[in-house]
Amino acid sequence: VSFCRENGILLYALPPHTTHILQPSEIPFAKLKKEYSKGCDMLYSSNNKLVTKRSFAKIFGPAFIMTYTPTAIINAFKATGIWPFNPNAISNDCLDPSLVTERFDLPPSPPLCQQLDQPYEQVFPPLPNKISASVELQPTSNYPTRSNVIEELKLLKVENETLRRENAQLKKQNASIKENFSLVQEELETFKNPGTSPLKLALKYPVSKTKEREVSESTKKRKTLPFAWLLTNDESWQEIKKIDEMAKKKVETTRQKKEEAAQKRADRELAKAQKQAVSARKKEERMQKKRKESD
Q1: What's the mean per-residue pLDDT of the chain?
Q2: Biased composition, Basic and acidic residues: where in the chain (predicted)?
Q3: Mean pLDDT, residues 203-208
Q4: What is the span of the domain harbouring residue 279?
């Protein structure tokens, strides 16, 4: 950064994932490949040799010089809109999300497909009407008696209860078929558009919300410089200086702590050695005293 400031070079940090449209060196690269291919062809046609590690620089050097001329470099910066600054140099189409290029038209699973294609009566055969087969209503006269009416009411109640049970079973079967059909549809959509999922499927598995820590603006500290900054302006230069000073201070603090720890360790070792020497001297004195007493 200091070299750029001294030589009048504007150092610019590109935003992430945009080098394919904002990097000026990408624009003349096609010409570089073309010139390099010409050099390879000339080498092969003249000497019948291929490019090796030894001859690579000899072929690549002239191609690079012919490609990256001052005019080409200026035009590259102009085409990307960096200098002169032109925010409309890059069209919005370059920033659109990528489209789906692969589609898989797969049929649904055979069992469910066969069931859906069959008639309703074959998939869900009607339950046998046991009441109508087992019970036969006796013919009544034009003026039915009380006992006949009561008997007919009982039979109608039993038949009504049976129909209710049949209806409940049919509802359960219908619900299971609808569920299977929706699962097959979701699976087909996933195969048709790989890498995506419908909103219904995404909302089916909600993400638990975590409480964000409340941090005041005064305590927030940015550890890195923001992207797309001109690194040679005064604001960025002061920010870089602060980061450099903080790093140096941290290194100095760490070095001092290590020196203090080493000094403490050396003091402990010295005290331990002195203590051992004193104990050894006392032991020697006791041994001499015992020898004198024995003599």
Answers
A1: 76
A2: 249-272, 281-295
A3: 53
A4: 250-295
Q: CA angle 230-232-236, nearest 5°?
A: 70
Residues 33-58: what's their mean pLDDT?
Answer: 91
Structure tokens of 294?
Answer: 């024995």
pLDDT at residue 179, as a whole number = 86
| Amino acid in position 4 | C
**pTM for the whole thing?**
0.37
How far apart CA 190 and CA 104 sit, in angstroms, is 9
Q: Within this chain, do residues 69 and 121 fall inside the same structural domain, yes or no?
A: no
Boundary residue ending a domain (169, 192, 215): 192
62: Cβ contacts below 8 Å, ≥ 6 apart: 35, 39
Query: What angle in degrees, to the nearest 10, is found between the helix axes of 53-67 and 29-47?
Result: 130
Rounded CA separation 43/59 (Å): 8
Residues 6+ apart with CB under 8 A from 157: none
